[in-house]
Queue: 4 jobs
Job 1
Amino acid sequence: MNYTFTLRTVFPYLGGLVPAAELTLTISVLAILISMVIGAVVAVMRRSRLRAVRFVGAAYVEVMRNTPLLVTLYIVYFASPAIGIRLSSFTAALLGISLNAAGYMAEIIRAGLIAVPRGQFEAATAQGMSVWQMFRHIIFPQVFRNIYAPLGNQFIAVILASSLASAVAVEEVTSWMETVGANSFRFFETFVVAAIVYVVLCQTINLARLQIGRMLFRQPDARR
Amino acid sequence: MSGSLVFLPLFLKATGTTIWLSWLALLIGAVGGTLIALLRTSRLWPLRVIALLYTEAFRSVPILIVLFFAYFGAPVMLGFDVSPFVAATFALALHASANMSEVVRAGIESVGAGQWEAALASGMRMREVMRHIVAPQALRVILPPSVGVYITVLKESSLASIIGYFELTRTGLLVRETQGGGFGPLLALAAIYFILSYGISLCGAALERHYAVGGATSTDAVVGGMA
Amino acid sequence: MNGAPILEIKDVVKRFGSRTILDGISLNVVPQEIVCIVGSSGTGKSTLLRCVNGLEDIQGGEIRFEQTRVEARSKSIKAVRMRIGMIFQQFNLYPHLTALENVMLAPMVVHGEDRKTVEERARALFEKVRLSQRINAYPAQLSGGEQQRVAIARALAANPHLLMFDEATSALDPETVGDVLAVMRDLAVEGRTMLVVTHEIRFAADVGTRMVFMDQGKIVEDANPREMLAHPKTERARQFFSSIRG
């Protein structure tokens, strides 16, 4: 092997890495937020009394979880002009990732809802709370506790998924690696740098989630 | 979409390619994953740490950059070209092995300590314990989530299109270009993936019912991420 | 005892799909009465309670609480629920709130009372149920009996005109059953109006002013508890009381 690993060769390109990493983070954060909204709607749909509504919700989840993210991205990116909408690469990528992530988010939220015992709804109702009051004071706090950890994992999954945005011309970290690698031929070094960025992002989120969790849910241990 | 029907044989062939690629990657990943799982449960802590770092690394890194590295980096580093097929198989197998190692580890750990002790006490060697006692039981726990991993690999195989491999997604994009752009071929693409993936998950569910063992299911949370 | 009924249940029918759970129930409760409903499991006792505060809807008959018609899905149900306190078999305390917060929530959020007033009342209620030292504990840190006493305080905090107990002691260890029954006894002595579904026949005989025996969705007997136990009028009641005595 005539190749020597020299990290120094990548240094001139590190300036471009910062905006790329920003883009990765931006897309991921926005995608998580959007997917939470869509996911919450779908989760509630799946608990509806109407069979048709439940079916649509379930269908959404199954479609998003059984089609590759790349295909979803291409459909949003290429097909939106066909229905008359002009989307920037960033928006198309964001939309595609959000729609896909919402499929997973819906299941996380649905599991969180199911984990709240029926008695909670009954006690709140029996006390005269309106649906909104019940949701705000009793249900939401418990659902949030239930979904907190899976949410953290989903955030990490979205960070990794954001790398596919490079396929629709978004200049995030993976795209940086491609471009710099092609320009410098130092593929190993660029790979290592890109990998480090992702690992740092993911592990930081993990640690932050654990730490914030400890602060938020500061309940002493259960008796039993 | 009327023109697309002409391309049906092409789509079928491409579907076969996708299935073949995924299956190969899964197989290699399963073997690798088992090795890693054995390292993870080894008595020697350096081996455990190495295995842990391996799994954590591949679950914190997007498969796409591994793919690019394998395809573009290899010629420069190794001096010979790597076909998209080889690069894709390599990257997919690597990721699959990280996921499979967790699945296999759960399977091994699901066999209670009492079984180990009883088997060892009766004079069996480690290898024999593994083969006759642990493996059969572990397999029942491993099979259902493996279906989930396979589905993930199937979806990830679409990334091979980016480096030019003619699997399903690339074929779909090509058909779309010849048709002058538009919805049809892309929707057909999505439909084929959906049928494959959903169908396999139904088989996985049937497998689960057949084995009727508690523990990880093929639809459990983020085995393999969002693909 | 005041003569006008606080609760009127007239010919109530409740079905779940094709199964009829309540088959023409008629029952009136007058203020300060302690009505104990007994019977085998599955005879609709809990369901009856749940129809009174609209947790379940009814397919026939009518329920009136303080002259207001009880209709499960109407706007008027809120006023009814604000004046009825319910204590559940599984306690149903809110796990993410402390005992004190559990008790204070509904008066502030549903009744719109100010925090200071509610907190004073809550602390007094904790004194009453003998749990003042546990007000900052979370439900997970409390025993079953303690949780149920907090649940009683929670129901009392909203100044209810009627208290409904749905097998309040059935999920408790035998040792703690006594603590909860003692609190219920105190409430009865105070002059509260109580509708109690229970398996504790002795409690019903000691504390109840009336015992209602239900079987297969119907009220079979309705009389003074000591009377009913000494001289049950129907065969079904006789069977029931002798079987549990054993």
Job 2
Amino acid sequence: MIGQEGVGERVLLLGNEAVARGAVEAGVQVASSYPGTPSSEILEAIASVSRKLGIYAEWSTNEKVAFEVSIGAAISGLRALASMKSVGVNWAADPLFSVNQTGVVGGLVLVAADDPGAYASQNEQDTRYYALATELPMLEPADVQEAKDMTVRAFDLSEELGLPVMLRLTARICHARADVTLGEIRKERRQAKFKKEPTRWVMMAGRSRPRHKWLIDRLSHAQDILETLPFNRLEVGGNELGIIASGVCYSYVKEAVAKLKLEDRVSVLKVGTYPIPRASVRKLLDSVRTILIFEEVAPIIEQYIKTVAFDERKDVEVRGRLSGDVQRQWDLNVDLVLDSLSKVLNVRGHQVSEERQLLLHKAAETTPTRPLALCAGCPHAATYYALKRAVYKMAKGPAIYSGDIGCYTLGANLPIDMQDTNYCMGASIGVGCGFSQAQVKEPVVATIGDSTFLHAGIPALINAVYNKARLTVVVLDNRATAMTGFQPHPGTGVTAMGEKTQAVSIENVAKACGAGFVEVVDPHRVEDTIAVMQKGLSHDGVSVIVSRGQCIRDVLRDARRKGEATELYEVDPKQCNGCKVCIRMFGCPALTWNDAKKVEIDRVLCAGCGVCAQVCPLEAIHPVGAQ
Amino acid sequence: MNTNPEELNILIAGVGGQGNLLASEVISWASVKEGFKIRVADIFGAAQRGGAVTSHIRLGKEVCNPVMPQGSANILLGFEPVECLRAANFLRPDCMAIVNTRTIVPSSVTLGQASYPSLDEITALMQELVEKVVMLDAASLAIKAGDAQIVNIVLVGALAGTLATPIRKETFIEAIKNLVPKGTEERNLKAFNLGFEDVQAKLDKSKN
């Protein structure tokens, strides 16, 4: 659907697919990204039509590189798009704070997918601050259709201004589906041509000053253009209250206003651009005395409105996250908007009878929590088990486990409980160096995934060797960027466009970084893995153990495709004495506890990895053949 | 069957890995094919597996917001029993709940930190919460269709079998043919039909 012709046709698109479609309609020629929820489907969708439409698409090693790839293409005159999750923009921030001054030739769009509520991230940072800090224009869609339309417009705008343009999404837009009306696909394919101009492209000491002035002039011009775009809209109803909403909050406001029948009592300003449309804000300030703002997550519009009100000498009450009329942190939803609106306007909201409230309370009390867990058959669970045993044998106590970003972060949950810190991509090794230099008493073990190691682990590993840290690095290598949907990475030997390429060897990289002990293990061979880990832990210096086992989801998918059955395992109830070692030390989700106080294996969940059979001290778990 | 509703809210509640997102896509695709305006929110965290996952599917004339307010689901498509209870806040009292009886025990229960209610207890609570509850063993039907993994399509069949949506059976079938992996169409259609017939039989029985 991303590449299909058919102007005016209505199709079902995911928010991220709509952005991809927008890029295709705009004639994008280069797209780059590093996977991260909620942004991953953008590049996946572009890559799926890349050959057909003559687009180059890549998974880059990290977001900084991804953005630099797009910069290179855009300053050569091509249209380019880099997409990443919120925290990925922190990586891309370094080039972002220079390319704002050089500007671009071909349209350059940086898509930042935020995660208000931090459902799939280490924080709920608001990347709109990056647009403010870099003095670049930003667009923010309120729905899926607008996500597509804005992407197209962002490319034109970028070329009109000669500036990169940011597109800010949130998870509720990225992962929304809606009917979208398609536009025309631009067929123009430009020939790359880089014009040398050292005073512009070479940002070094002394060259920034005139370019910063240029940037500020461009931003002022951008403000004039943005004022006229249809993405900002003042819907005049009544003057009891002025509501300002951006992003998905606008759709919450629309529904809440209709539900409370406030159409004639309030006026709504939809904000879709940054800088914020000053003329529309002035118009709203002229007609109301109170303004209520719904935005995710930071009070950015709220503070801006206060500035405009001050400049315009308007005596208005500005309410929102800072005043406590909207919750200060986290994502919003229509129920929260209904609450805020009914309180501010003193109208009756939706009432739930006391009887039903009691019933809902009972339902909530009866519902057990469902912590995220590593899958049945996950090689990481086997690695953690072996590591736990090896540490216990060596140190007679726990290690400090500096953790990292990926599926294996779920090792923080019980029963594994082996992630003592988690900050950002690659921090396991950096923070591990810190523990080592601080001379903590416990052994220090950094756990990091394959894709994360290649993304951010290498400079930290070099640091560990260079500064003589005593550290064991366990690379949990499952041959995929699994958490975000099994995207390939430089270690897999496949590109985003499905081409075979040189696979980067993690163990060779580790050796080249100077690690004194480097071994590769198969975590499914439990005793062998424990033995190697013991050696690594006793190494006086930096040891790297690559624990390599393909992601079980990939293994099962391959087996299904080939029509192969999976070997299943069973607990012999006569042998099981209910010691629960398998549940407490290993904790595969397929292991359950039955009424007879024995362990049982869930046959639908069991992936046949056979690790539990090696864990059971009574050898009570046996293969029962392929099913 | 209300063929042109003002607004119809379908909530899918399940556990990551059950294929609920594909079910959401099939229902949404079929809705668009039928000409409805549609807004859908797939709500899940970072993990591919194991956590609670919901999809809000909203179709109708004026829908603009993908996330439904509490107390507004007309139909619950429950992939897992306790996940139905977790979604209770979103259900209208006159909601129809389709509940897959097959449980997926969370680690909190296995580790003894929480308890999993009995199926009888869940059924009784669901019957108090909503007007109509249809229970079915979708996992067994999926195995009967030849693949334990296609519980999701059995449940799409169950939804179609209620005749409570304005989407025609043939449109669901077209959506499935379009969206399931190539080569698996036959077993998926079998799964759809098994779910469809199971619910039809149950609804007929409750009428008599």
Job 3
Amino acid sequence: MCSDTVLVSQIQSGNKKALGQLVERHKQVAYRLALGLVGNKDDAFDISQEAFLRVYKSANTFDNSKPFLPWFYTIISNLSRTWLRKRKSRDYRMVDVDDVSFLLVDESNPEMAMEKRETIASLRSALLQLSFEDREIITLQHFRGMSYEEIARMLNIPRGTVMSRLYYARRRLADLMRNDSNE
Amino acid sequence: MNNDVRKLLAGYVDGELTDEEKKSVERALLENEELRVELAEFKNLKEVTGMAQYADLPDEVWESYWESLYKKLELGFGWIFFSLGAIIILCFGAYTVFSELFADPSAPLWLKIGLPTMAAGVIILLVSFTRQRLFAYKRDRYGKVKR
């Protein structure tokens, strides 16, 4: 199986089949990352597709000595920021987003699911109010289950910065959830 | 309390600390009630996020994902070729019309003045629109974000 970097170098010479392979490999990751950032299923789908189109159009700007995923993530992140700005959320929050079903209770335990639905609603509401940067780090760590090392590579930041960003993001998320339950 | 130890709490909850870092957090936890409360809060948060998952799309959407993407790709190329063709034809048409118009002594003067003026107006509007778009692109704070 070809590596991502090999596929991108084939895309650089206009190979659409290579793009197809890359899409099959990363379409769900792209969608879920975008969903974590914009909180809307339809838009996350569109952003994921637009990200692959950008890969095809901008393949020549890709540095073949570097890994593909951080570059791809930057494309998704930039597209998501642009999308949020277009939604007139000046501070890149998702307060205007009307799709409340982007985050669901894990239904593997139906009895637990009933009890936890309220907590998840509170989490959803808190996530909607976080800044883009906070939501980004929470998405990568909590919902993508990435290690600090992987996040550091993905965002091109030191491991210590990952830890401190996660600390502050969690602090704000916990505060928002506490305020929500007090209201 | 040392703020650095506090920041290590995230790594402590995720099991991402070195032995030395872990020991320094545990020492601080023994001494500091506030830190213990914060740790409990973070653990609870981790549990809550562990219960949630992002909504997936139906299988048929995934099955037709590449197909719909390929259509968008073709559509993009279609527009590029169409636009290029349209520009070539428009330029040729304008050249033909103007060369014939100015070569024809019987053509009325108002037409000889009016048509080029209108064409100049269209060109100015196009340039202005393009400049505005470029200006907006350059001012895009996140357009060139590199991580």
Job 4
Amino acid sequence: MSTETGSPVPSFVVFHVGRRRVALSREYVAELIASPILYSFPHTTPLITGVVLRRGRIVPVLDLGPGLLGEPSPSARFFLVVERRISSNSERCAIPVQGECELVSGITLAPTSQEEFVTGCLDLNEEQIDVLDLEKAIAAGAKSQEEAIPAAEALS
Amino acid sequence: MTQPVSSSLMPRDTRRREQVAVFSIAQYSFAISAASVQEIRSTDSLGGTVVELDRPALRKVRHIVERDSRAYYVVSGYEHFHLPSSRPTTVLILRGAPVAVLVDRIEEMAEMKVVLELPKSFRGDERTWYRGLTVLDRKVLPVANHLGFLTAVELQQLEEQNPGLLQTAAASRREREPA
């Protein structure tokens, strides 16, 4: 994935999480990888479905589905590698995406969604695309999953 | 006889390597440093040395086992890792902690070249469970922390619920053993 730098118009990567099309600022996106081997092991962190090995580095895989769709996203062939900011550190993680990713430039408009992880809206050929705050989207997903686990335990 | 010249020119991997035991619980594999395992035994061979706890303070610990005049809390591996019930056939008696871990089976002994830090995105119990991750045969495996099976707080809970039990069990074992 390549882009022009120094452009006055901000760039975004548009992608699908399940049926929902969303955008992320280009500055967070490192690369798109296809069909990596997903390794999973026991853990208790919400949203993480496993890890992939990328150039000798361990990259956790985070499903944005619970936050964006209210359910886990369908299985994916492509993973968008993004840069997270955790405290004062940054860390790469991979987001399973469905279908193609698109690099676009545009001005963000005021958000049309009430969801707190939506920071703005892109108008692409009259289609409104929500622009995400990555950390807030992860936090919203984690919260919904953490709430779902006690509910499932109560029902079982 | 001179050494082949090429051997000194070959780039050497100077990283410290570590022997590990690879074990499985349910469908998952884990590595653990061989240095932190004192003994690996079949559960069948433990027989009469297993004592049930009167007051199990933790779901994952229901027994103690006596070995060589010492007593260990038996930690169910699948309960510890929050996995569905499995069929443990092997017990890892650890060194440096009064802990014996029930696992399904030992897969292999291997040499680990590197322990990679657990990514910061992981923020749950796994930060206690694992020392990090390693790559063996192109597979990513978690490296179990032998001190993570029972934390200091959990050990204290067990001791409070069963005061002096470990010491008593070990002492009675010593008395039973022939001089």
